[in-house]
Each structure stands twice: as C-alpha cells, then as structure tokens.
Amino acid sequence: MKRYAYFISDGTGITAETLGNSLLSQFDKIQFERVTLPYIDSVEKAEAAVAKINQAAIDSESSAIVFDTIVDKNIRAIIDTADAFKVDIFAAFLAPLERELNVDSCYTVGKSHSPTDSANYLSRIDAVNFALDNDDGAKTRHYEEADIILIGVSRSGKTPTCLYLAMQFGIKAANYPLTEDDMADLSLPAFLQMHKHKLFGLTIDPDRLSAIRNERRANSRYASLKQCYHEVDEVELLYQREQIQSISTTDKSIEEISTRIMALAGLQRRLQS
Amino acid sequence: MKRYAYFISDGTGITAETLGNSLLSQFDKIQFERVTLPYIDSVEKAEAAVAKINQAAIDSESSAIVFDTIVDKNIRAIIDTADAFKVDIFAAFLAPLERELNVDSCYTVGKSHSPTDSANYLSRIDAVNFALDNDDGAKTRHYEEADIILIGVSRSGKTPTCLYLAMQFGIKAANYPLTEDDMADLSLPAFLQMHKHKLFGLTIDPDRLSAIRNERRANSRYASLKQCYHEVDEVELLYQREQIQSISTTDKSIEEISTRIMALAGLQRRLQS
C-alpha cells in the first residue's frame, strides 16, 4: 500500500519534514511517497499545492497525509480544502501554549527560520570554516581555538561529523587522522597530548570500515579486512591506554554521532536556535 | 520573564528541538532558556531529567515547557511527573494517524533517526566529499558529475550552502568563485559555459558583503564598500546577461538559501528521509 505524504510550509519546510518523518517512521508497513512544498506563501501557490494533493489522492486511490506549518490563516484555509488527512502542527499546539504562557503568539509568516540574526550567521560560518581549515590534520596550530578534536582512523566519520557539529551547533571541531605511525608509539604526538582534554575518539566496526574503504579504493591493502582489523584494534587500545572517550560510528547517522558527542563531551551549542 | 524549555528524546532530540523551536519562535516576548536532553532511554536518566526540570521550575519560579518525543511508555510516565507544561508530540498525533492509516505504529525507541540504512549513509558521505573536493573552484573536471554548480563572489555563502545541500539532501554541489577576471569578459569561462544548465548564482547586499569580508580582512581593498559594490554589480549583470537563475543570500539562513535553491532549480533530494 502506498500513501502520499506532503510537507507544506510558508518557510523552508524543515519543521514539517522533521516532525512528519518522525511520525511516519513509526509506520514501517506503509510505503510513503514524500513531497515537500516549501515557500507556499501566496494564494496562487496554495491553490497549485491543493491541485497536486488532489491529483495524488486520485493516483494513489487514497487521501494524502499533509503535515503543515503555515501560519497565514487565508493560505491555511485553502490547504484545508484538499482531499487529505491533515496533521496541523501549529493548530494543535499554539493555542495551548498561548494559554500556558498567557501571551498571544506572533504568528508571523516564516518567523521560525528567518531572518537569521547576523551574529548567529557569522559564528556558524566561522565554525564551518574552522572545520574546513582544520580537517584531516591539515593544521595543528589552531588546536588552541578548537572546542573539540576528533581522532580516528581514515574513513571512520571524522570529517562529516566535524562539519555537522559546526553547521548545527556552531562548534569548532578539528580532526586528526590516526595512522599506523601514531598508533605504534606508546604515547600521543605532542601536539595532541597538550590538548588531551579536547580529544574525542571515533571507532568503527572493521568489516564496515573495509566496506567503506573498498568504495574508495577497491581491493587495496588500505581496504583489506586484515588492515582494517589491525588499525581498529590499535586505535581502540590507544583510547584505552590514554583514557580518551570514544564512540563507535557503526550504524549511526551523522546526527546521532554528533549529538552523542555533544552529550558525552559536555559541549554546549554556540548558536541560538 | 524567563521560562525554561526542555527538549527531551530517547534519540538525538532533533525532532523535539526543531518542532519546539518553531513553536517558541512564535512567542518573542518571552525569553526561553533552552535545554536539550537527548538519549533519555533509561529509568535512571529519566529520573535525573525530572530532577533538573523541577529545579528549573524552582529557579525560574514557573513551570518549564517540555517538548518530548519519547516512545517508551515507562520512561514517558516518569517524565510526566515533572513540574512542567508538556507538549507531547507523539501522543498528539500518533493515535489519529493510526486510525487514518488503519495500522498500529511500531513505536520503536529512537526509530526515526537510527539505525541509518547503509546506502543512505554512503551517498551522504559521497556528497559531502564531493562538496569538499569541488569547493572554491579547486577542480572543474568533476562538473560532469555535479547536480548543481553555485557561482558567486567571494564570501557570498557558496561553501556552507554546498555543504548543507550535501549533508541534508545528498546533492552533489560544486562551487566556483567569480573573480573580476571572469566578470570582465562578456562570456562565461568555457568550463562553466558547457555546464550552464547546472549553474546557480548567489548574490548579496554589498554592505553586508563588506561587513562579512571585514571580519576576515579588516580594512582591506577586498573588504572595501567600493570593491563590494563593484563586484556585486558585475556579477548581477553577468547573471542577467547569461540568464542564470540567482538568489540573494542577504538575511537568509543557510537552510533557507539551500531549500530555496532546491525548489528553484527543481532538484530532488537524493536521500531517503
């Protein structure tokens, strides 16, 4: 059975998508065809959206599910005419919150994501640039400024995690790839040792690592199971020996790796939501 | 007046945060102290969370607002004992959805974000690596493979937008910085011309650009108002002459720039949500 799911917003659609996908993920027997319609901020766009939703209902022989976060009452009224089951996020929660907080909500179109305040924008860009400049051990002289330094073997997930920490939380995250040279020694390189309180280790299942490396360099020594087992063993011993906190990235999304690191390292987000 | 807002989840907390912040942004007269408590997946952690919430209520002399997406009934029951106004996202919407879809939801702990399926993880990492490899005009020989190529003057937002498109949507986005040389010519460089259908222009208010560049290189010619006005004028003329779609990044968040580009360029996300 297939059902259409629409995420409709007068802004980016991110809230509608995030909540909608969370709810839909609880129904794994049903196949959903997902469509996001952002920036529905005029009568014309709303009418075009309704036409699409109604066509989807005909095609799939069942009403679409609509998740919406539109705040303008006139545009909402148009969306309401569609042949759909509506999950109306703001209607469900804004009125009870107004009573609890004892004030009216401002109910402004697209208020939740824009305009971004300028200080926030700049610190986010700063953090992204920091992650790019300090990726893959390229520079180690900025480690003083880092909030956290991720270490781990090649392809264990360091780069995307650093970028996500920067983008989502404004955290300045550097990363340093541990190679066999680093692991053979009994101690960390001096430039890591002096920032030991900022180090956080990534580890990964060796079979998974081998599969990822094979995507990059098929049938290489680098991607071989033997090499992957060896490197992961060594790196886990290093974390233990040096008492460096670590997590496994196997079967985790970048969001999950990042939010777990935030919690385990006790980092506070540097961006106002 | 200050109120505490808690985002509580047995997973990353991203759904609770996203919805919660959207709702709270409608109340701009109230100052919220926001706290995210992810991975609340045991009785002990839930009890610790309740203690924090109750302490916050005492400190702020008013009940906290709690947004939660916990699915385990026992853990939920503990959170319910806190002195708080609860916005219970799953309780509000799952039962009506179950009736509409005529199936029970699986109600699995943390199901919405993990485990990620492996194909999704790899295409996301691929897209992030593509953005990194093709940043700032570093390489132009992979443009064949790009889904989109962002062009614009230095510091107009190309890099963070490419990274967000990769991370969030799995889109392979390259970017090329337009310099005075490119703009002086009457035509695009050949390697851009041949991918003209993939080009998307960024522009920015010159005063804002000057402020951003001054953060990087204070009082330089590069950051001067005169130079910024000149470059932005030229680049907007180029977009017009070559009929390249463009948007202004001024006062927009990276999310908004990215989702608008997705919609305007007609790009489809390459990741399953």
TrEMBL record, chains A, B:
InterPro entries named among the record's database cross-references: Kinase-pyrophosphorylase (IPR005177), PSRP (IPR026530)
Cited Pfam families: Kinase-PPPase
GO molecular function, one term: ATP binding
Residues that bind ADP: G152, V153, S154, R155, S156, G157, K158, T159
Enzyme nomenclature, EC number: 2.7.11.33, 2.7.4.28
Keywords from the named record: Kinase, Nucleotide-binding, Serine/threonine-protein kinase, Transferase
Catalytic activity line of the entry: [pyruvate, water dikinase]-phosphate + phosphate + H(+) = [pyruvate, water dikinase] + diphosphate; [pyruvate, water dikinase] + ADP = [pyruvate, water dikinase]-phosphate + AMP + H(+)
Protein family membership: Belongs to the pyruvate, phosphate/water dikinase regulatory protein family. PSRP subfamily.
Task of the protein: Bifunctional serine/threonine kinase and phosphorylase involved in the regulation of the phosphoenolpyruvate synthase (PEPS) by catalyzing its phosphorylation/dephosphorylation.
HAMAP family, A to Z: PSRP
PANTHER family: PYRUVATE, PHOSPHATE DIKINASE REGULATORY PROTEIN 1, CHLOROPLASTIC
Protein name as catalogued: Putative phosphoenolpyruvate synthase regulatory protein
